[in-house]
Write a structure and sequence with these properties.
There is one protein chain. This protein is an alpha+beta fold. The strands form two sheets. It has a four-stranded antiparallel beta sheet with strand order 2-3-5-6, with no helix packed on it. Strands 1-4 form a two-stranded parallel ribbon. A hairpin with an 8-residue loop joins β5 and β6. α5 packs antiparallel against α6.
């Protein structure tokens, strides 16, 4: 009984020692986009711009403060003092109290509020455009990790097959079925694969580390290699183009910029009207109190805010031209992305036949070699050809999936994938 307890204790201790510190998160493409949307360092930084611009609304709603002004004059000639007084006596000083306030015109205040609100909307739209760009970068980086992992897997298969053949050839050499040259050539190829594996593993780990940064997470991560991009998305160019021209984030940002420019025009025009300053004066002079009215206003003979008004019109024109240029660019980007997607899709369909043929050839040549029907040169050539075909297939598959991501980016649908 005591012995059983000791064994149980040792097993438990070993389990605790080798238990991983944290579970590894597996990321599909969509999950990666969702996490990046919430945690990406650039997005979390840029999102603060929305709150910063929203504070301008608060500032625009505030009314001008009251202004309190005091002027005190003291008689400095002692010979002029009344009898039994000194410089601190009320008879020898004049005090001026003035309470004034800038009278903000209702149209000016409303124009400021409206401009601040439009700028906040613009900041929100600009953030969505930043998000679109970041999500594309994350998606492409996820795909880089996926491709590196696939290249690593097929190279491992080739290495396993070659190692197996090395073991077989050692036995066959002992039975004098083959020459030492066959074993040397097989071992050489296995060593080459071993070096490539180490190099590819480093590439994979580097890409995974880059993806981890873009996701803004400190957890151990890996990707779902089974994710085949099976989204409910049947692209049709005309419908995609109309949707992109209407809803893509950079289009929305330029439309918001035009609206902000229109509000700025109203504000700058309203500021051409001078704001009066009104108030009351209390002025006791030598103990004799006086009360009066204060008022001042700029005379708009020279400055009528002409420069800012002209600038506001130019800013609106700039935003309108930017919108036109973006809409033209969208047509080019979307057409190019769509055509590339269709081409890469056809390439993938054609490549599937090559894969099956390379598998069949390798199996046939391997069987023939092991039964003495062909030479080691033929087998090694078939092995290299199989590996080249596999690598080319995954390169083509990567290009196909890149074209899919870029089509989602050009159409503006990539933001929806992160929801």
């Amino acid at each position: 009984m005591m012995r059983l307890r000791e064994i149980s204790f040792i097993i438990t201790l070993v389990f605790l020692m080798y238990k991983p510190s944290s579970a590894q998160e597996i990321y599909t493409l969509q999950k990666a986009l969702q996490v990046a949307k919430a945690n990406n360092p650039l997005l979390t930084t840029q999102q603060l711009n929305i709150g910063i611009t929203a504070t301008d609304i608060v500032s625009a709603q505030l009314r001008p403060n009251l202004n309190l002004n005091n002027q005190t004059l003291v008689l400095t000639r002692p010979a002029a003092y009344p009898a039994n007084t000194d410089w601190a006596s009320a008879q020898n000083r004049q005090v001026w109290w003035q309470l004034t306030k800038v009278i903000q015109l209702p149209s000016q205040r409303q124009a400021k509020i409206d401009l601040a609100q439009k700028n906040t909307v613009l900041s929100q739209k600009a953030f969505v455009e930043t998000e679109r760009n970041v999500l594309q970068d994350v998606a492409l980086k996820w795909l880089d990790v996926w491709t590196a992992r696939k290249q690593l897997d097929i190279l491992q298969i080739a290495k396993t097959n070659t190692d197996s053949l090395v073991s077989i050839n050692k036995i066959r050499l002992g039975k004098e079925v083959i020459t030492s040259t066959d074993l040397t050539r097989t071992a050489l190829l296995a060593n080459q694969y071993d070096l490539q594996l180490k190099s590819n593993e480093r590439v994979y780990l580097n890409e995974l580390s880059n993806l981890k940064f873009m996701l803004g997470t400190q957890d151990n991560i890996d990707i779902d290699v089974k994710d085949d991009f099976s989204f409910a998305f049947t692209p049709k160019l005309d419908s995609l183009l109309q949707q992109a021209l209407r809803e893509r984030s950079d289009v929305q940002a330029y439309k918001a910029s035009i609206q902000a420019a229109e509000s700025n025009i109203k504000l700058q025009k309203s500021l051409a009207t001078p704001q009066p300053t009104l108030g009351m004066i209390y002025n006791p002079q030598n103990t004799v109190p006086y009360i009066g009215f204060f008022g001042s206003i700029d005379l708009p003979f020279f400055s009528r805010n002409q420069g800012e008004i002209k600038k506001s019109y130019l800013q609106k024109q700039q935003a309108e031209k930017g919108l036109q240029a973006t809409q033209t660019l969208i047509q080019t980007e979307l057409s190019t992305a769509y055509n590339t997607y269709q081409t890469q899709k056809q390439n993938i369909e054609q490549f599937k036949d090559l894969l099956s043929k390379s598998e069949s050839i390798l199996s046939s040549v391997k069987y023939s070699y092991l039964h003495g029907g062909t030479t080691i040169v033929d087998y090694l050539e078939a092995q290299r050809s199989w590996l080249d075909t596999q690598q080319q297939y995954y390169d083509t598959l990567q290009q196909y999936r890149q074209s899919y991501i870029k089509l989602l980016y050009a159409s503006g649908l990539i933001n929806q994938m992160a929801q």
